[in-house]
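Weekly modeling sync, notes
Attendees: AB, CL, MP (scribe)

Item 1: holo prediction request
CL wants a bound-state model with S-adenosylmethionine before deciding which constructs to order. AB pointed out that an apo prediction alone won't tell us much about the pocket. Agreed to run with the ligand included and paste results into these notes for async review.

Input as submitted:
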Amino acid sequence: MSIISHGHTGAARGPETDPGIAEARAALQGFELGRFLLSNLGLNGYWTSYVLMHPERGRLTNRSSDGSPMTELESRLLNRCPIILATQERFQLFRALTQPLIRSGMRLASLPGGLMDDLLTLDYSGVEDVVLTAVDLDPDSLSGAEANYRQRNPPVTIECEARDAWNLESADRWDLITSNGLNIYVEDDERCTDFYRSVARALRPEGMFIVSFITTPDEWQPTSASDLDYQRFLFQEVLPVKWTCVRDEGKTRQQLTQAGFDVISVTYDEQRMFPAVLAKRRR
Ligand SMILES: C[S@@+](CC[C@H](N)C(=O)[O-])C[C@H]1O[C@@H](n2cnc3c(N)ncnc32)[C@H](O)[C@@H]1O
């Protein structure tokens, strides 16, 4: 299902969306993240990390990625856009689910790794011999993950591997895999289930899988209806983004079960947009 089939049309726009599409596009040209979105209609590892880290970086300084003062649109995007706020909250949900599972000797992977913030921001004090693997198709994301590792310097080893998520060529290898930001680009349900099968094969029996999904818009409980209206205007009319593959909890549970997992928990964010699932590979 696609987000694009839901929500308000241009005709239903309120005064908040008055600037018009051309004006909004011009405003997006005014900052690096906006320019990337205009060209790519999605986020790569670098820009996902920028969005995730915003609460502890740009939100405090009001500076953009290039050091200039944040424009009104970028600030609105990063501080008020419901799906962006849900993404930032989802990141904290992943960390809270993963942290208590960390043990000495574990092999963890992030797939797609992006800049690996989900694993690199955990606390590894008191554990030994932990190896993290960043798996991503994009060499820039892998070098970004390596740079992020060097900067954060956690007491773990990191491996960066260029692999396709559907073809990991790894069986019974990892104890835990995290995955955010890939299934939301996969329209076909069977292909999405195949991705989960690929993860199940790569995990050891009883290995843990932490994965997110974007819920269907009828489930959303945005903290601000007008901000959701503006999000729809921006991400449907101005910039038809590609992260539109939404699924409800029932579908996600069914897919994970078919792929060989037992779902242990589904934890929702405040706006019920971007939950985090903890699942265990069956023996
Ligand atoms: C939205 S980012 C998410 C990154 C990271 N998981 C995070 O949450 O910060 C999506 C990432 O998926 C990677 N990617 C896209 N298709 C892939 C595939 N078939 N196999 C592996 N990685 C892929 C992209 O290179 C990009 O780094």
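Recorded for review: Residues 43-45, 48-49, 52, 110, 112, 114, 117, 136-138, 141, 164-165, 180-182 surround S-adenosylmethionine (CB under 6 Å).
Action items: CL to compare against the apo run; MP to circulate these notes.
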